[in-house]
Every structure is written in structure tokens, then in C-alpha cells.
Amino acid sequence: MSKTWFITGASSGFGRELAELLLQRGDRVAATVRKPNALEDLAAQYGERLWVGILDVTDSSAVRRVIDRAFSELARIDVVVSNAGYALFGAAEEVGDAQIERQLDTNLLGSIQVARAAIPNLRRQGGGRIIQISSSVGQAAYPTMGVYAATKWGIEGFFEGTMPEIAPFGIEVTLVEPGASRTSFASSSADMAQALDVYDKTPAGEFRRMTATAGLAMFPGDPRKVASAIIASADQQPAPKRLTLGSDAYALVHKALTERLTMLEAQKELAHSTDVDGLRHG
After folding, report:
1. Does the active-site annotation cover 241?
2. What is the rounded (10 degree) CA torsion for 2, 3, 7, 12?
3. 278 exposed, middle or buried (CB, 10 Å; 0-12, 13-18, 19+)?
4. CATH topology (fold) of 4-247
5. Could you read off the pLDDT of 239-258 as tens digits, one per residue?
């Protein structure tokens, strides 16, 4: 059965891949972009099955207005994909205040506002699915990606608390954690801080050199395969809470979680020792 999807940031990257695949298979897509002509080719090919809205997710009032209009005009939206975002690269000392604010406004606050605007509409129609594009960096970060990682850890924390709130209304959520894929994400859409020479011989400098010389080997993910896996996840019941995509993503997340659990177990006795005297622990 065909579905109706709402996708933010559909002009490039995973958003564009999703829109193309969904339209090809006969689904209906409500896509938001920042530039009016970004999806002209798809509009010409698919006509009324493609609904286009102009949206910058950093404009909270516009987020609610566009999402409300999409639900009103399309009657029902089955899946909301919060995809709009970009990466900021730079050590904590290197990135500027304006760069940090824009990164948080887009990736974290923008994603929160998309969810907040979608939830009442999904609730009123009796349920649906939210797919939030996070990142494997939402579980472990690389040097020079601390601020970007903060937005992904932040949105995952937001949904950890929000999922049980909205589950009684039939609204399910999947956090997608892709690795490095061969999209324009790390090039044309990225924001680079001015590198400081003092970091040249630190892990930040080593990571920069590695990314500069690794070429495509550092980007094993196939964007179309990632998009296909995301689409397939919308048919899974119950919804997978997390979807880790890419061999690099699996390795990074597995290492991070294993190390975190090992450290936690080592602190079990200490953790219990700080409770009020007389409590019994299982």
C-alpha cells in the first residue's frame, strides 16, 4: 500500500534520495527545500504526487505553518522524515559563536521543532511514524566534530524522552544513524572553521589530514542503499528504535557502546556506595 511521506531537506543528500525512490515506487511525497526551484525536475516528472514547501527549519513559526499546511492539504501523512541538517567541522576553540549557534539552530532546535509540529497532527490522525536522521556520531564523536556530535546526541536524547510520551497515540520513532556516505554532506553542505596551527600535531590535526587524504575510502556508504533501508524500516512493526547503517557506523557505535558498558560495570560498586545508607540493592 502506498504511503504519504513528509521530508525536510529534500534538495540533496538522503532527502533527495528518499524523495526519488519513494516517487518511483508510487508513493506521495511532501518535500521541503530552501530554494524554490530545487525539485523542478521531480515536479515535472511526478506532478501532483510531489508536494513542495519552502522551509528553513531554523524558522520555528514557518516549521509549524508548513507542516500544518501539508497535513491539511494532503489529508494524511504516514511518515515524517526529519532530515534537514549539515555538519560543522572544527575544534572547540576554532569554531565561532555564530557557527555554533547556526549548527544548533539547524540540526537540534530545527529537528525538535519539526517533531513538535508533526506530533499533534499525527496524534489527531491516529498515529504515524517519525524518522529522525541522526548519525553514528550521535553515539561517538571524532575530533573536530564535537559541536556536530552535540546536535546528534541532543536530538537522540530528546527522542529518548519523547518516544514514551507519544507511543500511546500510535506514534513511533526511528533514529537513523548512518556512517559516512557518498553524498554532498561533507563537502558542499559543510561548514569549516578556520584551523589553528597549534592543533596540527593533535588528534584534531591528524583527523583533518586523514579526511584530506583518504578520498572515497572514508565514505563507504551508498546513499541509495541507505535511503532504501530507511524506507524499508517504515514497514517494520514495531518500529526499530535505532537504525545503524554502514560498516563504519556499526564499528564506531559497537566500539563506543562496548567501552561505555565496560566502564559502567567497573563503577557499579562505587555507584551503589553513594546511595543513602540502609538501601538494599539487587
Report:
1. no
2. -10
3. exposed
4. Rossmann fold (3.40.50)
5. 999 999 999 999 999 999 99
